[in-house]
Amino acid sequence: MTVINQIIRRKVKLVVKVNKNKKIIIGILIVVLIIVIGLVIAYKLIENSVTNRADFNFTVENITYNLVETVDHEKSKQNYSKVVDNIKLELNIPNEWKYEELQKNEENDSYKYALKLYKTDEDQYAMLYFYNDEFGICGTGRTSENITLNNGEEANIGYYDGNENWSDISFYNMNKNIAVINYGLINTDADEVIEFIKTINITENN
Questions:
Q1: CA pair distance 161, 171, nearest whole angstrom
Q2: Are 204 and 87 spatial neighbours (Cβ–Cβ below 8 Å)?
Q3: Using an 8 Å Cβ cutoff, are 116 and 100 in contact?
Q4: What ranges make up the beta strands (E) of the chain?
């Protein structure tokens, strides 16, 4: 009986040991599975966070850019308009430029209307004249070039004696009595006037 009891005890111990090992293995597998699931969930959360942040930044950048562009476009110019003898003058004047309207006076009866355009110095300016008669030029020492206005019409720019700064701008295709004269504007300021003079429209006011 002693031998049989020993054999039975050994079998029982073996079964208990096997069961114990199975429980350990199962426990390890469960822990590994929990870790894997946790890593997958963490990865998904990080991925969604990065994607949402990128979409948010892209949206904000686009909105900001469009708003700045719209505001600058609206505030960068003054839409000037004037009717003289049934002729309508329209011009986009940059905000940094100032203008003054000059009506016909007894001291100078060659024009019926004038518009003074200057930036910082009132003694350096361009004057847009609406003359009583056709604008005339002196050909001595004069060179000229044509430019295309924004409305598709052409204007003529005159230079004298090799000076790189323009002297006058005329609009013979639209109205022979209208011209712009340069009084002391040079370099960048003179070039800026040419650029915004390109926005001029001269039409009959119907």
A1: 22
A2: yes
A3: yes
A4: 77-84, 87-94, 98-103, 111-118, 125-131, 142-148, 154-160, 168-170, 178-183, 201-204
Edge-first strand order for the sheet with 154-160 is 98-103, 111-118, 125-131, 178-183, 168-170, 154-160, 142-148
Q: Are 86 and 71 in contact (CB under 8 A)?
A: no
Interval 9-36: pLDDT, tens? 665 565 556 566 777 888 788 887 888 7
Specify the 3-state DSSP secondary structure of 8.
helix
Amino acid 126 reads A
Q: How many residues does the chain have?
A: 206
pTM over 0.90: no
What's the pLDDT score for residue 75?
Answer: 59
Coil, helix or strand at residue 1: coil
Residue 68 CB neighbours (<10 A): 10
